[in-house]
Amino acid sequence: MKTVAVLGGGPAGAFAAEQIARQGLRAIVLDEKLAWEKPCGGGVTYKAYNQYQFLRENDTPKRFVHETSLASTGAGSVSLKLDSPLIVYSRMDLNQMLLSRAIAAGAQVEKTRVTGMQRNGEQWDLQTRHGKMTADYCIVATGARNPLRDVGTRLSSNDTMVALGYYVPQQQERIDIQFLPELEGYIWVFPRCGHLSVGICGKGEPASSLRRRLEAYMHEKDLRCDGSTFYSHLLPSLDTPAWQQNRVAGPGWLAVGDAAGLVDPITGEGLYYAIRSADLAVQALFNELRNNEMAAAFYRRLLRRDFANDLELGSRLAKRVFGRTFFGAVPSRMIQLTRRSPRFKSLMQDLFSGTQNYLTLKRRLLTNLNGGLVDMVLSFSFSRLIPRSSTSNE
Ligand SMILES: Cc1cc2nc3c(=O)[nH]c(=O)nc-3n(C[C@H](O)[C@H](O)[C@H](O)COP(=O)(O)OP(=O)(O)OC[C@H]3O[C@@H](n4cnc5c(N)ncnc54)[C@H](O)[C@@H]3O)c2cc1C
Asked: Is 284 in the same domain as 335?
């Protein structure tokens, strides 16, 4: 029986192992921490749990959040009711649930660090803290700080955001998103079971300066830093050229989730893409076994068709949303339009739940927002902010 070593047991690795084991191959997850409180908001969108219903239907503690407030300096705030709530997990609980599913499907799970991998003919020789092992395939799921230099996305500083924050022992019902002047990123407050996850992500700005911005916000909103646990991590946010050269696969290996840079460059949503890419990688692996078509090429094609074109367009849109002015900062104008136009509000709700992608955003703006004169002018102007997709489906 073929052995697939899954390097990393976060959401991407655990889900890949579950699928591999379900289809009858030997899957071994190697993770140095196993379930842990990975720095993360823990927000799972409707797009994710509608497609992977176990993300909603399970006994794991979680919060269903039905309201979000978007705010921007100078433009005030607007509240969005979420018909499809955002589910918020602690990452310790979510990772544990996914690893338990992998084990129940027959995967083996070992707590160890992978320290090296060498190709040996058609096989892999793997080095771990606990010794050596061989495998026929490797799924690389080691996250944004992937230490295995020869596999997975090469993340430059242009392709990452710094993300940091606090777990604050306070409660609130809604999600808050705050846009700040001259920041390619935002602040979030996510209610979780028993605490709030309050954080900031930003591109091209030092962590110390992001932390100052976050602490000033927390002070203003009466959110305590003292006594709250601090966290920080990297968030992949690939620039447009990186989407074209993204190293997601090679002979005998496929990279999934953050190790493949598969995160929405505007919202920072990565959990859906971790699970989805794991699903596609396993399809590619089994296609190679059945049809002899190279898994690497097949996987690249599946990613392109499924969501990589959309995220690449997102990377171009991010520059315009955060970097351009449109009678002032773009997020501020978005908030004002959300306040005044029910159709734009519905579009924002769909963006939030993940049912509106970037590829069809321009068309929707042009066809859907033909209300009053001001709406028309603003919608048309917004639609001009959205670049056309430059990529094919292959
Ligand atoms: C601050 C922050 C907030 C975020 N908020 C959200 C959010 O609200 N919603 C959302 O959808 N996304 C969010 N994301 C993104 C999301 O956290 C990631 O996209 C997601 O965790 C990716 O899953 P993964 O399995 O690819 O990687 P990870 O979750 O990072 O898992 C990688 C695993 O690999 C293991 N590992 C690494 N190296 C080795 C090694 N050498 N040997 C053995 N094991 C190893 C690690 O222990 C880890 O368990 C956020 C990210 C950050 C940083």
From this structure: no
